[in-house]
Amino acid sequence: MNKSSKTRNEKHKILNSALKTAEKTGWDDDLLQELKAEYGIVAMTQHYPDGLLDLAYEFADWADAEMLQALAAKKDKGQMKITAQITFGVRARLMALSAHKKAFKSSVKYMMHPARAPYVKKMTWQTADRLWNAAGDTATDYNHYSKRILLSGVLASTTLYWLKDKSENYDSTWAFLDRRINNVLKIGGLIGRLKRTAKS
User: What is the DSSP string of the chain?
Assistant: First the structure.
């Protein structure tokens, strides 16, 4: 096993422990203390120098990886419209997070501090960018940015809705997601028309 693989495995173990521990401690200093007691201060400092913030990033990366893996494994992906792929990806990410919903809710509460707003924006943009790329988006002009801005809004609002959703099989969340996607399509079309008009 090379050094890179060993590091990934160690970080994966720590994250798994963090998700279990956060269910009882929350995403706070108690979580860090328990992880340091289990894995040692050196390991935690090496892998997560910014502590809870780095753990939140690792959690987001894990959820993104689950999302992309689910989309790649979809047998009819090649026949799906990009919008359908985007919708499927958002759903897949939330379903992956559902196994750790209590821990995720704690991490969201931690990230909602005003001082961490720029990091939330960066993490959400990264998820949107990864999903668009996986769906085959090749835009390089203003569409590249507008698509990711709009999807970031969908991701944020749908995730917050999902956190409070108690409907069976999250049916209310999926209906909300469909409405948001439809709204984004309309807004995206309007932006495109305005850009074309401005250039003419």
Answer: --HHHHHHHHHHHHHHHHHHHHHHH-SSHHHHHHHHHHH-HHHHHHH-TTTHHHHHHHHHHHHHHHHHHHHHH-TTGGGS-HHHHHHHHHHHHHHHHGGGHHHHHHHHHHHTSGGGHHHHHHHHHHHHHHHHHHTT----SHHHHHHHHHHHHHHHHHHHHHHH--SGGGHHHHHHHHHHHHHHHHHHHHHHHHHHHHH-
Which residues constitute the domain of residue 30? 3-199
For residues 93 and 158, the answer to whether their CB atoms sit within 8 Å is no
Domain count, the chain: 1
CATH of the domain at 92: 1.10.357.10
32-65 per-position pLDDT tens digit = 999 999 999 999 999 999 999 999 999 999 999 9
pLDDT band for position 1 (cuts 50, 70, 90) = low
Q: Mind listing the pLDDT tens digit for each residue in 74-133?
A: 998 889 998 899 999 999 999 999 999 999 999 999 999 999 999 999 999 999 999 999
Check: CB of residue 68 under 8 Å from CB of residue 130.
yes
Q: Are 44 and 32 in contact (CB under 8 A)?
A: yes
Quote the CA–CA distance of 35 and 97 in Å, as a whole number.
Answer: 21
